[in-house]
Amino acid sequence: MEALWHHLLEVELRVSPQEHPILLSEPPLNPKPTREKHTELLFETFDVPGLFLAVQGVLSMLSLARTESVVVDIGEGVCNVQAAYLAHLLPHTVTQLDVTGGDLTTFFMQLLTAKGR
Questions:
Q1: CATH (residue range 2-110)
Q2: Other residues' Cβ atoms within 10 Å of the Cβ of residue 48
Q3: What is the DSSP letter of 42?
Q4: 28 within 8 A of 89, measured Cβ to Cβ
Q5: How many CB atoms lie within 10 A of CB 25?
Q6: What is the DSSP letter of 92?
Q7: Record's superkingdom (predicted)?
Q8: Residue 64 confidence class, pLDDT cut points 50, 70, 90
Q9: Using CA atoms, how far apart are residues 74 and 103, in angstroms rounded to an integer?
Q10: pLDDT value of residue 88
């Protein structure tokens, strides 16, 4: 992760991490040890001046100027459904589904192939 963040910040974005606070999105119910590891790495290795961790679904909700929502977050290998209220995740609502973006891609490719397209 350190090498990835170094490449992203210093090579791709060409910014000094010491001069910019970081907003880091995380999946719902991200384990505390993972959160602590990322926080430690950003503060101690990259010397960032500030860090804010936010749940991905809550950020999606805020991007639409909503204060409450149900978010379906479908990625290549994971799908989460979660509810948020007043910009806070409701942990008891988080559900992980077995159908992922990869499954949907495969399904639609099969449909297109079956129809000869």
A1: 3.30.420
A2: 21
A3: I
A4: yes
A5: 14
A6: G
A7: Eukaryota
A8: very high
A9: 10
A10: 92
Q: How far is residue 2's CA from residue 37's CA, in Å, rounded to a whole number?
A: 11
Place of tokens 């991200």: 30
- The residue that leads in pLDDT, 52 or 29, is 52
Give the count of beta carbons closer than 10 Å to the beta carbon of residue 41: 14
Host H or E run for residue 40:
helix 32-40
Average pLDDT over residues 30-46: 96
Asked whether 74 and 62 are in contact (CB, 8 A), the reply is: no
d(CA 24, CA 8): 13
Q: Which residue ranges make up each domain of the chain? A: 2-110
C-beta separation of 85 from 68 below 8 A: yes
- Quote the CA–CA distance of 69 and 86 in Å, as a whole number: 9
Which residues are within 8 A (CB) of 90 and not within 5 positions of it... i.e. 6 or more apart? 82, 83, 84
What is the chain's length? 117
- Coil, strand or helix at 55: strand
Mean of pLDDT values over 2-6: 95
Residues pairing with 83 in the sheet: 70
**pLDDT at residue 117 tops 80:** no
